[in-house]
Amino acid sequence: MDTTTEKTNERINLRLKPGAKRLIERAALFEGKTVSHFILTSALERAEKTVQTHETMMLTAEQSELFFESLAKPIRFNPKLAAALEDHRRRVTDK
Q: pTM value?
């Protein structure tokens, strides 16, 4: 998502303690940013990391090998699942 070219029309309001506000203002000043820009860039960096953490699976070499071996094996349905799939084929049409 390219946040630099999107139209900015969304808003977030924050209530924070004075000490927290002063700390954010100080950090923004050190980076030469406005408070809003500092909060936005910091929040976006953290959001990207959080999303990546939840959407990425890291496997060891052994886990990776087991995963790909499992994918390569032919699928065998248990009797209940096979019956349910057959029932679905009989009942559902592709129109």
A: 0.59
